Amino acid sequence: MMDNLNFDSNFLAHNTESCLSKLNKEENWNRLPLINSCSHQNLKDGQLVRFRGMIQDMYNPVLYFSSYAVRNTKTNETLIRCGKYKDSLEYSEEEEFLFESEDNINKERRSVYCVSIPALNDWAKLPLHTSNESLVNHENAGAKRNMEIDEEESSDKSESNITKRLCSSQESASNKQVANGMEYDLNLPIPNLMDKACIINLYDEDGSNLKLNDVVEVAGFLSFDSSTTCTINGDFCTDDEIKFPPSSIVPRLHAVLIKDAMSFNPPSNLLSTDDVWQNAAYLQKELKLVLTQVLFGDILAADYLILHLLSTVYKRQDMMALGKCSLNLSNIPSPSLLPGYTKKLYSLLSELLHKSHFLPMSLTNMNSVDLIPKKNYETNKLISGQLQLSNKTHLVLDETCMEAGKLDEKGVRNIQALGNLITFQKLDYNFQFYPVEIDTNIPVLILSEGKSMLNSDCHVVLQPDKMCLLTINETFEAAKHFMKDPLLSRLRFYLSSIPFKDHEIPSDLQKVIHEDFVKLRQNDNKFSGDDLHILLVLARLHSLSKGQQLLTHESWQTVQDMEEQRKYVITYHFLCACPNLMAYHQRWLGARRFEPEHLHGVG
């Protein structure tokens, strides 16, 4: 038998433990209507709902009355009301608020501005459905509540049928703008007509550990009343609250329970973490098969792309983001030779990745697009930029559309921001008077004709097979037909769950790694600690990709071979572009030949 979730904010405030116990059950949680996929017309003020999104902005804490006293002017009776989970103080025409009452208790709450998760791919949005049963049940909530709420709470509810909402004049002016056809900017990092925004009020210690760009799923009471625009703080609105958008456009949600949604995966009866982990080697093989074909038959490039897709920052130490593995795939055919290739490759990747964003690096785009969030002190808003993304959002940069020209000041700042993101996994948000450093975890893939103007952890030169070049459009179609459920769902779960597995290096292998580092230094005096770090990252990712949580000698040797082969291809490609150097090296090396058919993937 399902639990009854039709309680209001007053009932929850007095029965917190039992209500939260019900909400913590997954079947009850999923029954709550999800604002992201509901029409506002289907939602009601005071309804218990959910919102899933990213924290785009955070406001200063404000005081509110957790409880307050009102007096009936006719009977002289004094009542104590609960102000928690409410936008305003509620009292009827026959009641007055007692400003000096000792029963008035102030507490703090803070508001955060949440938007639908930026760059969330369409397939990941499909599960965001609404329980029709929850909506229907809400219609009869009044009758059911009478059986659950005690007499005092029912009395409070009836006496507050007519409410006075302070600061309503500001809302009226704002609503007039909407009524006159004015559109309110939802401040979305990546504009999308279907995305929504919500202001979430956090109480007590809820959300004390939340930070900018965190992805959360929140259950709470909806404030969707057109007569309110701001949170009541006594009898005044703060400046921040007056500048809030109207609740008819951006509803308020008074948070009851908050869950971390970072590890969200669409539910499926076919999937489990154990199943994916036990079949990791098989799934890696299937993914490699697909990626090899769409990368013109280049096995080595497919190996590196898989490791890149699995990469994530798992620790920060000494100014380093450990675990990142940015990848530059160069020698991509130019748009004039193969139109639309980069977009088709991205489209295929977006079918596998939970969150991803494609950014063409044309001169016009770089000089015009806003990548970095900027603080506007007049409106007290953090104006979003396209790089304000949640963790594990894959960013694909397309350099093939670059043309000759000059970057203006904004373009230079954008390129610098991309460079810092790739190198340090940090972004400096523009707070005008000073920068605010924000840690990121955004894997970056760069597609370019020549070596990218941006640094990357790994640069792989594509070695296209001529037959694959001629049939690439058919190859993409075949890849789509190949990646059908249940394989597609398993590959998605594989890419989203494997990166967060623990990984260790056995003590005996640590000694081997140290000895190999000494040998590598002896053979190449330019081999540095950073190069060793890249090897360790690749080894970790290679082990995990195969379903191994302990690094093995085989994986360690494999990534060394991959790196040697990657550098060999770069040298070969460079020499092909310089015939005189090629001839010189061929004479110097004697019988050794630089031929692409000698290059094979080793992953």
UniProtKB/TrEMBL annotation:
| MF terms (GO), sorted A to Z | chromatin binding
Which InterPro entries would you find in this protein's record? MCM_complex-bd
Q: What are the UniProt keywords, alphabetically?
A: Nucleus
One GO biological process this protein is involved in is: DNA-templated DNA replication
Query: Out of the domains of life, which is the source?
Result: Eukaryota
Gene Ontology cellular-component terms listed: nucleus
Q: Where in the cell is it found?
A: Nucleus
Instruction: Identify its protein family.
Output: Belongs to the MCMBP family.
The protein here is known as Mini-chromosome maintenance complex-binding protein
Annotated source species: Clastoptera arizonana
